[in-house]
């Protein structure tokens, strides 16, 4: 993707119209209450649009329509090949409108246009295509039962699914969830984060254009308590897939327990270690990975490398190189393609991140914050400090020094979370022993990343619960297993078991 100039992006931004109403049963409509809320450009504080503030009555309507769509089979019982074709048409429409969607995403979230163009949009398109292409290549199973029986183990779409999304990757998290959910044949109720409702609404419009039948994809903007909780507690929603904070994830378990025991998948926070051992090779490359892992998306990333655990022998040399790389991450107007760190998503989140800059850690780099923007910051911290323990979710890297491999692994695991980790070493045995020993859903060796659409993503402990996003494993979230047992014998049964 060739990037445009700052002026060209500003011109696109000025020409955009914003989708502002809920999308239910194939059409846009205001919230039943008529209420709206402001969605704000965090880089400027400007109100971009007033968006429908949905509530319980909108959730009830959307679920009823989604249920009708699911039960009459207009989508759920189509041959998988036909669902695939519609989803590929959607992916192509997203591609055709990628520039506009990237600008919309950047305006609504404060993410840099650089990232929206080079990561969020291409990965969103790839994810939709990957799950669409998968769906007509999955086979069910026949169990090794006796000659007198045949036992089919089949997967069926789970039904009506609530998808509750975060603000840090509004489109990409939507794709991680609707890709497999729609491919499997489910009907979905999407709740975008209240900070970033615009691209999900625009995508709904494109889905309609692609030929997705009414009722199959519904998008309800609104707050957590007013839309998220009614989704979590709804008696006719079969499953919920949530990405966001651990605190809200716990609520979804409570909602499910206190309603219909819907299936729940939670993808939550992280305090992810980047472990660098004395024998790491090519420190310059290691430093580039760590800077990218810590500061990409302004650190607002559940898999951000937010703890650098470095063996003492290599610490000074590594930090020197990290400083050099971090200086190549300019902060500023998200629509200027030279900038790599944009605005934090909201004033409330900015204030939260700033609270971690004000406490007694030693500042190695940065530390300045102004009007929604935070500089890439590196802090040398004590092990029991808030910066070492909490998910800051900003461009803040906490440095901890260790003596040995064993101490590094123990410190990497000294967290309630277990989402992602990276390990840098030139020794293959330490790489594999370390990767096995670190409790995290994804461990990258001599690199930072989350894998791509082909690999399952999710965490352990306070980072994750239930299924996985991405990869074939994501399909499991949106399907359930049924056994169909057929007796082939002609004679009467001797005993029934
Ligand atoms: N795992 C991840 O990717 C994310 C982690 N976070 C973490 O969470 C912290 C707080 O960010 P928030 O935006 O407040 O996260 P959050 O967990 O409150 O929001 C995520 C989604 O849950 C919904 N929600 C909020 N309260 C709810 C409730 N009571 N019932 C049902 N749904 C509810 C929100 O409207 C949003 O759609 C961040 O600072 C960060 O540490 C935030 C976003 C994404
Ligand atoms: N990094 C993708 C998942 C998340 O941050 O929510």
Summarize this entry quickly.
The protein is of the alpha/beta class and 497 residues long.
Features:
21% strand, binds 1,4-dihydronicotinamide adenine dinucleotide, 39% helix, alpha/beta, globular, Aldehyde Dehydrogenase, Chain A, domain 1, 2 domains, 22 strands, 6-stranded mixed beta sheet, 497 residues, EC 1.2.1.3, Aldehyde Dehydrogenase, Chain A, domain 2
What can you see in these coordinates?
It is an enzyme of class 1 (oxidoreductase). With 497 residues, this protein is of the alpha/beta class. Helix content is 39%, strand content 21%. The protein contains 16 helices and 22 strands. The protein has helices at 6-15, 56-72, 80-96, 98-109, 113-135, 170-184, 198-210, 224-233, 246-258, 283-295, 312-326, 347-355, 386-389, 405-412, 428-437, 474-477; strands at 22-24, 27-29, 36-40, 47-52, 141-142, 149-157, 160-164, 187-191, 217-219, 239-243, 263-267, 272-276, 305-311, 362-365, 369-370, 373-374, 377-380, 396-402, 420-424, 442-445, 464-465, 479-487. The protein has a 7-stranded mixed sheet with strand order 14-17-18-13-12-19-20, sandwiched between helices. Strands 9-8-7-10-11-21 form a 6-stranded mixed sheet, with helices on both faces. A 3-stranded antiparallel sheet has the order 5-6-22. Helix 7 (198-210) links the parallel strand 8 (187-191) and strand 9 (217-219). Helix 2 crosses helix 8 (224-233), helix 3 (80-96) crosses helix 7 and helix 10 crosses helix 11 (312-326). It is globular and about 80 Å long. 53% of the residues are buried. The mean pLDDT is 97. The site of beta-alanine has 9 residues, from loops.
């Amino acid at each position: 993707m060739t990037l445009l100039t700052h002026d060209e992006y500003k011109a696109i931004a000025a020409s955009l119209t914003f989708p502002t109403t809920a999308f239910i049963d194939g059409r846009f409509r205001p919230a039943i209450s008529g209420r709206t809320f402001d969605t704000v450009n965090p880089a400027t504080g400007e109100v971009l649009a007033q968006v429908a503030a949905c509530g319980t009555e909108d959730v009830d309507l959307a679920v009823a329509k989604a249920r009708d769509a699911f039960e009459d089979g207009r989508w759920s019982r189509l041959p998988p090949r036909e669902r695939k074709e519609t989803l590929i048409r959607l992916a192509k429409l997203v591609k055709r409108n990628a520039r506009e969607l990237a600008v919309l995403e950047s305006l609504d979230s404060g993410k840099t246009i650089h990232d929206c163009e080079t990561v969020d949009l291409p990965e969103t398109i790839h994810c939709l295509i990957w799950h669409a292409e998968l769906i007509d290549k999955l086979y069910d199973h026949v169990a090794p039962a006796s000659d007198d029986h045949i036992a089919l183990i089949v997967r069926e779409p789970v039904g009506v699914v609530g998808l509750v999304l975060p603000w840090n990757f509004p489109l990409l998290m939507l794709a991680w969830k609707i890709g497999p959910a729609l491919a499997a044949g489910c009907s979905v109720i999407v709740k975008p984060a209240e900070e970033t409702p615009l691209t999900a609404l625009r995508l709904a419009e494109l889905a309609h254009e692609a030929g997705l039948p009414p009722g199959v994809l519904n998008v309800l903007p609104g707050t957590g308590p007013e839309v998220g909780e009614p989704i979590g507690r709804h008696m006719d929603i079969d499953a919920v897939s949530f990405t966001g904070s651990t605190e809200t994830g716990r609520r979804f378990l409570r909602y499910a327990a206190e309603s219909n025991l819907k299936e729940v998948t939670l993808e939550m926070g992280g305090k992810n270690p980047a472990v660098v051992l004395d024998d790491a090779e090519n420190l310059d490359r290691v430093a580039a990975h760590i800077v990218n892992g810590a500061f990409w998306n302004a650190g607002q990333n559940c898999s951000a490398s937010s703890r650098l655990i470095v063996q003492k022998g290599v610490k000074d040399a590594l930090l020197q190189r990290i400083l050099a790389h971090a200086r190549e991450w300019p902060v500023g107007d998200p629509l200027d393609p030279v900038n790599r760190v944009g605005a934090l998503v909201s004033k409330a989140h900015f204030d939260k991140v700033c609270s971690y800059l004000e406490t007694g850690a030693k500042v190695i780099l940065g530390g300045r914050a102004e009007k929604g923007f935070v500089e890439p910051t590196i802090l040398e911290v004590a092990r029991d400090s808030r910066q070492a323990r909490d998910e800051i979710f900003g461009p803040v890297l906490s440095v901890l020094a260790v003596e040995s491999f064993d101490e590094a692994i123990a410190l990497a695991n000294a967290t309630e979370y277990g989402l992602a980790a990276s390990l840098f070493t030139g020794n293959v045995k330490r790489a594999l022993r370390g990767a096995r020993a670190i409790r995290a859903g994804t461990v990258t060796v001599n690199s930072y990343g989350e894998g791509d659409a082909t690999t399952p993503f999710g965490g352990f402990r306070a980072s994750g619960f239930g299924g996985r996003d991405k990869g074939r494993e994501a399909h499991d979230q949106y399907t359930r297993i049924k056994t169909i047992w057929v007796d082939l014998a002609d004679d009467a049964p001797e005993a029934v078991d």
